[in-house]
User: What shape does this take?
Amino acid sequence: MSSLCAALQRCTLQTVGSSRPVAKASQFGPAPCALRTPAKRQAGARQRTRSIQVSASVAQMEGFTVKSVPTKPIEGQKTGTSGLRKKTKVFTSENYLANWIQSLFNALGEEAVGKTIGLGGDGRYFNKEAVQTILRVAAGNGIAKVVVGKDAIMATPAMSALIRRRSLYGGLIMSASHNPGGPDEDWGIKFNYSAGEPAPEKITDKIFGFTESILELKLAELADVDLSKVGTTRFGSFEVEVVDYTTEYFDTLKEVFDFPALRAFMTRPDFSLVFDAMHAVTGAYANPLFVGELGGKPDSIRNGVPLEDFGGGHPDPNLTYAHDLVELMWSDAAPVLGAASDGDGDRNMVLGSHFFVTPSDSVAVIAANAQAAIPYFKDGLKGVARSMPTSGALDRVAQKLGLQFFETPTGWKFFGNLMDADKCSICGEESFGTGADHVREKDGMWAVLAWLSILAHKNKDVPEGGKLVSVKDIVMDHWKQFGRNFYSRYDYEGVESEQANKMVQHLEGVIASSSKGQKFGDYVLETADNFSYTDPIDGSVAKGQGVRFVFQDGSRIIFRLSGTGSAGATIRLYIETYTDDASKFELDAQEVLKSIIGTALEVSKLQEFTGRDKPTVIT
Ligand code: VG1
Ligand code: CO
Assistant: This one.
């Protein structure tokens, strides 16, 4: 007997709306037994035909009713780099969300029946309503229990920790990450699997397949659950547990870091921190963590209340969107450490007084210091990994420490397999994402605690009132050992998709006709390709992950199209050069990269294709 049938064993079937057209068997999802009674289940083809003729039906589960509601496929429900993201108005349109959730359960099939999943999000507009819809579809598809963050809150890394610590089957995160929120902005949803990792492409492709053929929603008739109070609500065989969203996450962070040592450092009178939560989800975590657990001053937290529209801003921790923090860090009142996080709490930006740490340098510095400064890594690292467009700073650390090293496509889903196979401890992306194998997501708060740990370690012998080793000192010291990778990213947002695609086609042509040794401006070509990745663990292949030109001195030009936008296209241009000449370390990256950026724009004919003479964001 299938597990779905087992879960629905107590169903009783009633027929309603008998004037509806007869549905074909193939129009139903993978679990037609949901529409049958146990007695009929054994009675073979005749009964099966009869039950399938009931196109609008209700099944009585123990404690609630499941309605079969007809629906139609909706175009374009394809998951991008991280979940499905669209304008909020698209998601709130009829059945848009329910269709995707139903397709998810169709894709997961019987494996998910009777299981427990997590649910929460970044606090953005529509999350609380979305929870109620998701609960109805989950119950209608035989999920036994959903663990929901209080007030529908759950940061992305916290969901990963929740899944892992509670051995959940998976979890849903309602977030469009750093994209703005509100009725006229963006909404999004992602599914994480049993190790807490973003669903691999083989699952997201399957979900997309179901969205293209879906004709039925299985909706449980449930009263709204009160999300404002921790506790359990039972609907017969279905259960909803509203939980404190900090518990599992903080328990995990406590296993990684030495909290008493961090507390001692945080409370030094000569140390100061400013954490900018950007009115996003880490607002819900920053106070209990930095103030509650670590003894920081309450005024170290800025924009610490999560708002449905993130206060009208982009909750994206970079030099453009976190400008208040950047201004503070370049003022006389700059604290020792400045940090910010994004909408769903997986990204981070780290700053020192008058100093910005690029994310590519940040992961390299953390990897180089992890063993000495962070208890979780006291036995050394298993390996490190970075996404392809991330600078080569981490490669140099791997080489020096003799670590396994991996270069993956953009998006966190590619790191999970390496971690599950014990091949990678720390990884990062140039897009302000840093993390480790304590969870299977990038982790903004983890990165801040990692920097706090490094600062605490480097300053352990500095007496109070002595000159503290600063963030800048740590990075300068790193460059002295490893050299500096000058790095920048140009984003051209809201470009017409067709023009962006044409530019990529043009670049493919340039690749095809280029050869090793050819000169591009001041640079001599080593290789050019469209990056393709074969997962070393499961052999899956991801193609077309970014056009790259790698030059003989290690400099690189990379172009890729964003997979997280909700409309139009965003072109990303990544540029990198390297120097081990210490006299150049303090030069401005934009100055150093000027000539190679010029080459990149010339080769791509970006302006010709897009009409843009400058990027919308530079990081
Ligand atoms: C961007 C970043 C990528 C990151 C992804 C999700 O993707 O470049 O590195 O993993 O966002 O991050 P894209 O396809 O737009 O370049 V998050 O914090 O938005 O979940
Ligand atoms: Co994010």
